[in-house]
Amino acid sequence: MMHPPDSLKARILEAAKKNPVPARKSRVPMSLALAAAAVLAMLAVLDFFGGPHHADGRPTTYGSAAVGCTMVVAALASFTVLPRRRSMLPRSRAHLLSVAIGVPLLVGLCTMLWHPLYDDPFERLGVRCFAMVMLTAPWPFIALSYARDRIDPVSARLSGAAMGAASGAWAAVMVALWCPLAEPGHVLRAHVLPVVVLSLAGAVLGTRLFGLRRI
Amino acid sequence: MFAAGEGCLEMASLVADGDDDQEQGRRSAANAAMDRYADGDDSAFGALYDELGPRLYRFVLRQTRNPNAAEDIVQQTMMQIHCARDRFRRGADVLPWAFAIARRLHIDVVRRRKHQELLTDDGESHISARAPVTDAPDEMLYGKQLEAAVIAALARVPESQRVAFMLVRVEGLSVIEAAEVIGISVSAMKVRAHRAYEAMREALGESEEQRVP
Question: Does residue A178 contact residue B126 with C-beta atoms inside 8 Å?
Answer without folding.
Answer: no
